[in-house]
Design brief:
about 190 residues; alpha/beta; Rossmann fold; 7-stranded mixed sheet; two-stranded antiparallel ribbon; 11 strands; globular
């Protein structure tokens, strides 16, 4: 089986497990994650943290984002601008959020575009070495590569439920490893 086919199979399997979690279990796990990492993630006042509004059965990290904002972080959310590109727009108090592509929600085009210092990255599966499988479109890999080419090195924190962990993910040259992962069991550095 090719790495691409194996990733597709792992993605399907782990997303099915995530989808099978009850909404109550997902809410409880999301709140537990905010407790695990709300005071642990290293931020300086003014650091820009990229989060995301949950889609489908994703972790709801809005409680975590609120905790980080209380500690002085500036928040941003991704916006899909074309079939290859996501950018990050600052989430300002009182600003409206709109549909921003691929089922995501975020600030509209009037919001300032920013480069995050920390990225909370949604994923389909992860392993114990920090490799991850996204949703297959490559948006985050390209965004991270673009930021790194500008000399900006954001800390990458994968966000997932425990059921999304796998023994091993085949790493390909374009894959970007995570610095840490947050699940309902805790915050782990790689």
């Amino acid at each position: 089986m090719s790495p691409r086919d194996l990733k597709a199979a792992l993605r399907k399997e782990k997303l099915a497990l995530r989808d099978a979690m009850s909404p109550e279990m997902r809410i409880e796990a999301s709140l537990t994650m905010a407790d695990h990492a709300g005071d642990v993630i290293a931020i300086d006042p003014g650091h820009i943290v990229a989060g995301f509004w949950p889609i489908r059965s994703e972790v709801d990290i809005r409680p975590l984002m609120a905790r980080l904002k209380q500690r002085g972080a500036r928040l941003c959310l991704p916006a899909i601008v074309d079939k290859q590109t996501i950018i990050f727009r600052e989430l300002l108090d009182g600003a409206d959020v709109i549909a921003t592509g691929f089922g995501t929600t975020g600030p509209g085009p009037e919001a300032p575009e920013v480069d995050p210092d920390i990225m909370l990255v949604p994923l389909s599966a992860f392993d114990t070495t920090g490799h991850r499988i996204g949703y297959g479109a490559g948006y985050y890999d390209r965004a991270i590569d673009r930021l790194r080419n500008k000399g900006h090195l954001p800390k990458l924190i994968g966000i997932a439920f425990d059921c999304q962990e796998v023994a091993s993910i085949p790493a390909e040259p374009h894959d970007v490893a995570l610095d840490a992962v947050l699940t309902e069991s805790g915050f782990r550095h790689f």
